[in-house]
Amino acid sequence: MARKTPVPEEETAVAKRLALAREATRLTRTAAANKIGVSVDQLFNYESGRAPLPWTVGEEFCRQFSVSQRWLAFGILP
Predict the structure, then answer these.
(1) Among 11, 19, 35, 51, which is disulfide-ready with 45 (CB 3.0 to 4.6 Å)?
(2) Which pLDDT band holds residue 2 (cuts at 50, 70, 90)?
């Protein structure tokens, strides 16, 4: 289901960092989705900002891809 309101800037930034981290590992979206336990369509929606990233999915992404939650959420390097 498409959003009815514009995507907040903070969510757009999280979506970009999510895609950036996945691309840095050179994993396909399919492989990354399997690794974090979501469907390929869900991951696409998170990476494109079409859907907000749930905390639990972000937490699993950080664990599986060894990225800081602080970096994913705010762009602040450890």
Answers:
(1) 51
(2) low
